[in-house]
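>> received
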Amino acid sequence: MPVDLEDSRLTKETVLANIPAFPPIVLRVLGLLSADRPDMVPLVREIGSDATLSAQVLRMANSPLFGLAAQVDTVHRAVVTLGFVRVQSLVLAVATRSYMQAALRTEAMSKCWRHALASAVLCRELAQAAGLPRDRAYSFGLLHDIGRLGLLVAYPHDYDRLLDTADRDAVSLLDLEKKRFGMDHCEAGRRLVEDWGLPPEFRVIAGRHHDPPSGAPFDPLTLAHLACQMADTLGYFVAAPLKAAGFEELLARLPAATREQFPDDPGVLQQTVERALGEDRSDADSPDDDPDEDHSADSSRGASSSDPSAPSPRLSREGDGSRQAAIQVEASPAPKARWDAGTVLLAVMVLLLVLTAGALCFWNA
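>> returned
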């Protein structure tokens, strides 16, 4: 049934008041990470106070991405291994997924998450081609639609009806959002990022990712804008675009050096996105982490290759947890020495030399 847009308009203040915030633990961790020189002691204490965050930080630090010989077995060592930028990206990914899963499952929510994840993957690929930080770019793509995600969490059925209207009547979803909520998801995202105290660059991206690039250098906003449009072009849209940009047109907007390093086959990019979506579904289908469970097994598993966080579905909404999560996990025993072919060959050659020398000494005597 189509929504009556004129009779059911809400005020901005009412809408924003009904959108739940990120978990307090996430906001505290992000606040610490936003400092010019983050203080390690409170940062480790906050991450260690949440079972999911500590498990995911340990899990990623022990992934094959870093190839460390010894197991990382404390949150402090994990943060040092990952670095502040990667920890920030991981925390944002865990929080966004937890935020989404706390909402009522609807078709609109599914489309929004697919678009956000596709945009994150494409942002990361664009950043890699441009020589920019990949993990930070992934976060830009994942959170560019945080305003839409907030509206979906607070008004799931209303947003479903807006999508039906936009697809049926081929009208702008942004215009429908303004009529229903008093603002579109871009303004909602900007206000939420400000209210939650997230880093300033996320405010720009959340509020202006639909604005055409200004011709400035390849900055985070341009990155998020192109990734969002490319996700739509590849079929990962929330509402069918009124006029979708062609893939070749989007490639032409890239700086020449970036274009040379970026895949020119949309099929390759779709495979990369589908791989990330498949891994995300596997994570969503797995049982929730049990706070009483030992997370040492999780910390030894490799993190997802396409999602820098490979987040678990549950995150403490209170942020403090019922108790301090286990920061120290039991280190695995040192691996036993193994004889490879080269070592065996060397040993045989040494033995032959010793025998030959012994034989010569015997005959000379």
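>> The chain is about 60% helix and 0% strand.
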